[in-house]
Every structure is written in structure tokens, then in C-alpha cells.
Amino acid sequence: MYLLPGKLPLDILEKFLKEYTSTNHGVVIGPSIGEDAAVIDIGDKYLLAKTDPITFVAEDIGSYTIFINANDIATMGGIPKWFLATILLPEKHTTSKLAENIFHQLSSACKKIDVAFCGGHTEITIGIDRPIVIGMMLGEVDKNDLITTAGARVGDDIILTKAIAIEAVSIIARKKSRELIGIFGEEFVDICRKFTEKPGISILREAQIARHCGEIHSMHDPTEGGLATGLYEVAKAADVGLVIYEDMIPVIEECKVLCNHYGLNPLGIIASGSLLITLGPNDTEHVISSLNNEGIPASRIGKIVFKEEGIKIKKGDQIKDLTRFKRDEITKIFEC
């Protein structure tokens, strides 16, 4: 039986990670469900290492690659410093202009966040129909400042910055622009396309603000599989349960429109651009107000509970299991 597109199912991935990966040579945190980057002891500091591909979009692929990889360094409390890219270009569709555009995008995005674009590999690849960029971001964190997803504690509040499905809105608008312009108009589609810039898919600023104004126990960015998958990853990493208040989850109007149009559940659609933070309740209001003062919306959307209580979502007086998505909802738009 073939697996669905997207992330490997968590149970299969966990089995592979336990069986085939290693944590020698100074590895403090190796590959595990929910942790955003590897942590390696290099002496006075920890080196953070992350790799992530961009496969859903070709337009502006360089910026996507940089910010998605940098986000995972930031969630560990670190500063992104060095970037390497493997650039795979499609046979019979690659021109020097296409290749240069990708290099320019990568370089420009690196400069915005003061990261050195210092290596990688480029080739024209048989069997693909669009560019694919696989990024590797390295960063540093002081040993006392390391934050892990596994650090979430029973009793913690859960904060979400900005709103869910920011990346999804931009991808849908880019992939379905001709159809959407005919239905919703060019101005609407142009706004959606630019969601990568505003509200923005980078979470560097909010991660840096949060870690300096409260005792943050964990941070995690929900990406492929959406908010729901991100929450399951937090619970798995920390061996806890959680309850989410559905009415408190911020969803931008453009996201509602596009998800309704294509029959997508916004809880299960790729969600880069928002940051999950868990912290003690005494710090919640201060962190939220500090983020708001910097122009970054933030909401308390739930609470960490004992593992035995499960992973739940509450709406009014009703509480039920949080939906588990076998694949990212955005894959549906590639089928229609």
C-alpha cells in the first residue's frame, strides 16, 4: 500500500528514527518527533542544524527556503548563521535566468536576516517538473538558552502568534491564481500571494521577543500538516496531553475564504508563519502584550495537560479529540 504525499506517518517515522539514526560525536538532541533542529555540543555553545525542502511552490522559492529553515533554528532559542542549499532544476525547463533568479532570492533573503550563504550543490535533475530547493541552516545558541519542544510542561498555557495557515494562503493564491482572479478579483489574489511578506512566514522576531520576556518552556512552528499536526508533535515530544480552545484560534479572513472555496480544513493546512509557545501561566499576559506592542498578534489558544487526558479541542461545552490529518490539506488543491 502506497503512502500519501507529505510527511511520513508519525509512527513509521518514529520507528525509522529509533532504528537508523545515531547520537554520537557530541549530539545532544538528535532526530525525534517534534524537535525542530539537531543540537550538537561544540564547546562553549551548541550548534543547531536543520534541513528542509521547499516542494509546493516554485515562485519565490528562495525566500521560502531561507525563512522556513531559519524558523526552526529560532524555535530552539538560537540565531541562524550559515546556510547551504541543494538546488535541483528541472530538465528541459531550466534556463540560466531561472537558475540566477533562485540564487538571487536565496542571497537576498539571507542578507535580510544576516545569514551567510556559504555552500551547497546545484544540478539539472531528470524526472522533476519544477525547481526544488533543499535548504540546510546552521545556527548557534548559548547552552543556557536552548529551548526544546520537549520542554512543554503540564499546566503551561499555549500561545499562537499571528494566525494559522499563512503559508497556505500564499501557496494557494500562487498555484490557483488564474482561477481565483476570475472568482474573487485580482486585488484579493494579490493580497493572498503576498502573505509570505505580510503577515509573513518568518517567525524570527516573535521567537526572539518571546524568549527574552518570559520563562519559555517550548517553541514549535507548525508547518506541513498545519496547526493540528504541530500540536500533536508538541504533545509527542513532551509526552503530555493538551486541550485547544477552537474559538480562540485566530484565522485570517482570506484563509477562511480560500479554505471554504476548496473545502479545506484550516487546522490541517501548512501553517508556516505562526509560532506555538508554551509557558507558565504567570508569564502569559506579559509575553502576549510584549508581542502585541511589536505589532505581532498573539493569542492564548490552549493548555498543556496530563498525557492521560488526551489531545482535545473544545468548542463551547463540547470537547472532542483533535483531528489527526493523514496528509496536509493543501495537497487537495493539486488534485483539482
Keywords:
336 residues; 2 domains; Phosphoribosyl-aminoimidazole Synthetase, Chain A, domain 2; six-stranded mixed sheet; seven-stranded mixed sheet; globular; alpha+beta; 60s Ribosomal Protein L30, Chain: A; 13 strands
Your description of this structure?
There is one protein chain. The chain has helices at residues 10-20, 61-74, 96-112, 166-175, 177-184, 186-193, 204-211, 226-238, 253-262, 281-293; strands spanning 27-29, 38-41, 45-54, 79-90, 116-125, 132-142, 157-161, 216-220, 241-245, 276-279, 298-305, 311-315, 318-321. The chain is α+β, with helices and mostly antiparallel strands. The chain folds into two domains: 24-145, 60s Ribosomal Protein L30, Chain: A; 149-335, Phosphoribosyl-aminoimidazole Synthetase, Chain A, domain 2 (Alpha-Beta Complex). Strands 8-10-7-11-9-12-13 form a seven-stranded mixed beta sheet, sandwiched between helices. It has a six-stranded mixed beta sheet with strand order 1-2-3-6-4-5, covered by helices on one side. Helix 5 (177-184) crosses helix 6. It is globular and about 55 Å long.
SSE map:
Elements: H1 10-20, E1 27-29, E2 38-41, E3 45-54, H2 61-74, E4 79-90, H3 96-112, E5 116-125, E6 132-142, E7 157-161, H4 166-175, H5 177-184, H6 186-193, H7 204-211, E8 216-220, H8 226-238, E9 241-245, H9 253-262, E10 276-279, H10 281-293, E11 298-305, E12 311-315, E13 318-321
Parallel strand pairs: 4-5, 9-12
Antiparallel strand pairs: 1-2, 2-3, 3-6, 4-6, 7-10, 7-11, 8-10, 9-11, 12-13
Helix pairs in contact: 2-3, 4-6, 5-6
